[in-house]
């Protein structure tokens, strides 16, 4: 996969990525990325840090303030990326505070559930892995690997944390419509993240994209690690039908995850409106 100049979906240590925001920018720039969206899970702290240290940004480099918001539609947990958001807006700040509490409480429940399975109490170790960033299941997976309870993060998800496992703790995530409105109130564009990664049938994806468009969603990711050409074809038809734009990104977290790297994603299908047209000039 070639390196693209845009990468609109990446994570730093402010959530479950391994690079600090500073390292992420340096690595992206070195890889040839010219416009990078930092889209941590339910936090804009990495973007805030870069705003306050903007002398670190190369001259010919554009940072796009972003976030990947966890939400639900019916029983389905979804991720919606907000791009070009005003991170200082009251709407965003209030939401981030709410999500921090929600995620901290969820972490306690995850730890309790794992104890019930006979594992040690991993709460402190998971918070240590999160290093003050927004906590999530990957930090529990990292703690398990460090303690030798499993030999990889993938195994930790497969055994304890993945879909349907006890550590997959569902909470009252905000509604899809709520996060779309929030992103709009913060002046951003809303992007449905990785639609083929929710284990939904094509028919369910059809309903989901219709609902997303109906609720005012702006764009859908169409180029990201793991999406197949056939899936892109199906998504292209739905995107065109609902007059949505398309987005693309590496969903980069960690250089050890060899299936993705900064700026890398499959080619973007032609003939569709790109989300970058909405905010890059
Ligand atoms: P959470 O936000 O706490 O629900 O955690 C979701 C995150 O876990 C995703 O954004 C991924 O980064 C990570 N994740 C999900 N499934 C896996 C998996 N099977 N292996 C490794 N990481 C995963
Ligand atoms: Mn993640
Ligand atoms: Mn995601
Ligand atoms: Mn992501």
What are the defining features of this structure?
281 residues; 15% strand; alpha/beta; seven-stranded mixed sheet; binds adenosine monophosphate; binds manganese (II) ion
What's this, in brief?
By secondary structure, this protein is α/β, with parallel strands linked by helices.
Write the H/E string, N to C: EHEHEEHHHHHEHEHE
* Shape estimate: globular
Structural class of the secondary structure composition?
alpha/beta
Q: Let me know the number of strands.
A: 7
What is the overall pLDDT average?
97
Number of helices: 9
**Radius of gyration using CA atoms only:** 18 Å
Strand content: 5-15%
| Largest sheet report | 7 strands, mixed
Describe the structure.
It is a single chain. The protein has 281 residues and is an alpha/beta fold. The chain is 39% helix and 15% strand. It contains nine helices and seven strands. The protein has helices at 21-31, 45-52, 90-116, 123-130, 137-146, 153-161, 176-185, 202-214, 229-241, and strands spanning 6-10, 35-38, 62-73, 76-83, 189-192, 219-223, 245-248. The protein has a seven-stranded mixed β-sheet. Strand 5 (189-192), helix 8 (202-214) and strand 6 (219-223) form a beta-alpha-beta unit. Helix 4 packs across helix 5 (137-146) and helix 5 (137-146) packs across helix 6 (153-161). The longest helix is centred in the middle third of the chain and has 27 residues, at 90-116. The protein is globular and about 55 Å long. The two termini are 26 Å apart. The mean pLDDT is 97. The structure holds adenosine monophosphate (AMP) and manganese (II) ion (3 copies).
């Amino acid at each position: 996969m070639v390196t693209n100049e845009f990468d609109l979906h990446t994570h730093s240590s402010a959530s479950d990525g391994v690079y600090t925001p500073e390292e992420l920018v340096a690595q992206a720039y070195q890889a040839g990325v010219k416009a990078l969206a930092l889209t941590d899970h339910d936090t804009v702290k990495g973007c805030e840090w870069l705003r306050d240290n903007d002398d670190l940004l190369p001259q010919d480099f554009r940072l796009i303030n972003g976030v990947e918001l966890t939400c639900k539609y019916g029983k389905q947990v979804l991720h919606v990326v907000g791009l070009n958001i005003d991170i200082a807006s009251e709407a965003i700040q209030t939401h981030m505070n709410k999500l921090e509490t929600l995620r901290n409480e969820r972490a306690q429940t995850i730890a309790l559930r794992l104890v019930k399975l006979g594992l040690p109490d991993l709460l402190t170790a998971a918070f240590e892995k999160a290093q003050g960033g927004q906590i999530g299941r990957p930090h529990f997976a990292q703690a398990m690997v460090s303690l030798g309870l499993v030999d990889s993060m993938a195994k930790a998800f497969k055994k304890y944390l993945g879909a349907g496992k006890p550590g997959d703790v569902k909470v009252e995530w905000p509604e899809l419509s709520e996060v779309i409105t929030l992103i709009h109130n913060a002046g951003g564009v809303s992007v449905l993240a990785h639609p083929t990664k929710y284990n939904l049938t094509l028919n369910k994806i059809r309903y989901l994209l219709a609902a997303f468009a109906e609720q005012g969603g702006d764009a859908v990711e169409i180029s990201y690690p793991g999406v197949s050409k056939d899936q892109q074809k199906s998504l292209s038809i739905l995107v065109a039908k609902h007059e949505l734009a398309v987005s693309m990104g590496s969903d980069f977290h960690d250089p050890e995850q060899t299936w993705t790297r900064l700026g890398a994603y499959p080619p973007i299908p032609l003939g569709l409106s790109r989300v970058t047209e909405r905010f890059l000039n």
